[in-house]
Design a protein that fits this description.
With 120 residues, the chain is an alpha/beta fold. Helices cover 40% and strands 12% of the residues.
Length: 120
């Protein structure tokens, strides 16, 4: 029983580290966003840093590569829309470039991650 407990502990520690790695260090825009009762599956997670760099899985990607990744993710996830985590100081041109690349990759829409407003 203790062995199973330790295995579960190790599993959850490793998966928590992997989930945190996909988030990246960005300051999200502060907006209320939508209030969904249940979390939806996300296909591709795209980070746009404050300097305009576009990253997928901690790797800098070009617009062509992003379009290719969007096509691959659409087939793998059954059409789940990509999630874009853009820093609030990121240039609008970089976000527009991501939107164009995702659209050319076959993603009709994407979700923009935001940070909830602080309660007064």
């Amino acid at each position: 029983m203790i062995d199973v407990t330790f295995l579960l502990l190790i599993f959850f520690l490793v998966t928590a580290q992997m989930a945190q790695r996909g988030r990246g260090e960005v300051r999200l825009p502060v907006q209320p966003g939508e209030s969904a009762a249940a979390a939806e599956a996300s296909g591709l997670v795209v980070l746009v840093r404050a300097d305009g760099a576009v990253l997928v899985a901690d790797t800098r990607v070009s617009a062509e590569r992003l379009a290719q990744l969007a096509r691959e993710a659409a087939g793998r996830t059954g059409g789940a829309p990509p999630v874009v985590r853009a820093d609030r100081a990121a240039p609008a041109a970089a976000l527009n470039g991501v939107a164009r690349a995702l659209q050319s990759g076959g993603a009709p829409a994407f979700r923009l991650a935001t940070e909830a407003e602080a309660a007064p």
